[in-house]
Design brief:
Length: about 325
């Protein structure tokens, strides 16, 4: 049963998704650049606004932030310029996307028009869009995240990719507690960047979110492990697996509840090392802010996902 407050929030969220999708589709029609690239850039920048104090709060509309000097032109003496002609004269990227004669840095359509025009200077195909993104952001990781977002939106054909589940089916036996930040000694002093969920060998491990498989393979600390980056630019790390689900590939989109492997005790040695500790899933979460990436405590999130998954019988 959804409470009236929850229902209102859900409806508001859906209205915002509908508004943004309408804007993205319009830009696709104008530029022939698929809508999911615009959505991917907007989502990346929306995520930055949640974790960066030097950026404005995210908006219900388009959250792409274009600095004044980039919008109006580096040498433009009028940093608040809204005249498309003088902006162009100073090589700014600001544009009039809604036909009102003004290039407004806070207007949804103008922002997307500016980004669309910029991308068009490189081309409409995937490879040239990647080049354009690198020239704009100057960071390989940022380009990778945006392209991953685009793959997700293309695969699932919707903007609402926020669903989460507990990493183990809740009808299995398992135990866990908050262990983030605890000391670890094997391989040198370090802190424990995750939560250990103890369960029997082979208990299914599933993706907690929609995401893109960013890493898959062996690590001497984590054993067989897999890393999935979700639409909020949060990296979900699953370690000590006994195996991987068949067919998983780097760059592959996944969804909540999708099987990715099984609980194991691999790690603390060369490939194939197992049994040096009881079987468990090490689950970690990392956030990227466009400059650096850091770990944070997944335990509160796991408790919420566990409660939601149990309620849904999942």
């Amino acid at each position: 049963m959804i409470s009236p407050v929850q229902a209102e929030q859900t409806n508001n969220d859906q209205q915002h998704y509908n508004l943004r999708m309408k804007l993205f589709k319009k830009m696709e029609a104008v530029t022939s650049i698929p809508w999911y690239y615009y959505a991917a850039i907007d989502q990346y920048e929306r995520n930055l606004r949640f974790v960066r104090k030097d950026l404005p709060e995210p908006t219900d509309g388009i959250s792409i932030y274009i600095p004044e000097e980039k919008w109006s032109g580096l040498l433009n003496p009028n940093k608040q310029d809204t005249n498309p002609y003088s902006i162009a004269a100073f090589s700014g990227i600001g544009a009039d996307g809604n036909g009102d004669g003004r290039a407004d840095r806070t207007n949804n359509e103008d922002i997307l028009a500016a980004i669309g025009n910029y991308l068009l200077t490189y081309g409409t195909d995937h490879d040239n869009i990647k080049i354009a993104l690198w020239r704009y952001y100057g960071r390989d990781k940022t380009v990778s995240v945006i392209i991953g977002n685009a793959h997700m939106y293309k695969a699932y054909k919707k903007l609402d990719l926020q669903k989460k589940v507990f990493p183990l089916p809740t009808n299995y036996n398992y135990t866990y507690k908050s262990t983030w930040g605890a000391a670890r000694g094997w391989g040198g002093r370090r802190i424990h960047e995750g939560t250990d969920i103890f369960a029997d060998y082979g208990v299914p491990v599933r993706s907690t979110s929609y995401g893109i498989i960013e890493m898959k393979g062996w690590n001497r600390y984590g054993g067989w492990r897999i890393g999935i980056r979700d639409i909020n630019n949060t990296y979900h790390y699953y370690a000590h697996l006994n195996d991987f689900a068949k067919g998983l590939k780097l760059g592959q989109p996944v969804e909540p509840g999708m099987l990715i492997g099984g609980v194991g005790s691999t790690g603390y040695g060369p490939p194939g090392t197992s049994g040096k500790f009881p079987p468990h899933l090490h689950f970690g979460m990392y956030k990227d802010n466009g400059r650096t990436e850091w770990s944070f405590d997944p335990y509160p999130h796991l408790k919420v996902w566990e409660r939601q998954s149990k309620k849904a019988g999942y």
